[in-house]
Amino acid sequence: MQTDYTAMLEQAIQSLVADGKEPSVALIKSRLSGSVPMPLIISALQRWKKNGVVPKIEIVSVSKSAEERIAELELQVRTLTERIEALENRQR
Fold it and tell me: Does the pTM exceed 0.70?
């Protein structure tokens, strides 16, 4: 699962600039429509100040719930079972 924070950060910074305010971590955080980890806000602000653009920032979640893992495994078992059956039917 990926979470893309780029659009949210970009919108918050552009909103501040449009209002004639100098973006800061606190001001960006106050303009965000959702929750963004503080290190990402700091990184985006630093890169925006240096390059004038917000970099693509996304987080890939490596932890999945037990239900998601079970569903993926069930799908994999079903797919493999179908493939085995197809191979067995070809050999007959």
Answer: no
Per this entry, what is the length of the chain? 92
Check whether 14 has a pLDDT greater than 60.
yes
pLDDT tens for each residue of 36-92: 889 889 988 998 888 887 767 666 555 677 788 888 889 999 999 999 999 999 887
C-alpha distances out from residue 7 to 32, 50, 69, 85, Å: 10, 18, 29, 46
- The angle subtended at Cα 8 by Cα 49 and Cα 32, nearest 5°, is 90
d(CA 70, CA 76): 10
Distance of CA 86 to the CA centre of its chain: 38
Spell 4-21 as b/e; 16+ CB within 10 A means b.
ebeebbbebbeebeeeee
Q: Which two tokens stand for residue 59?
A: 């987080």
Q: Which residues pair with 4 in a beta bridge?
A: 58
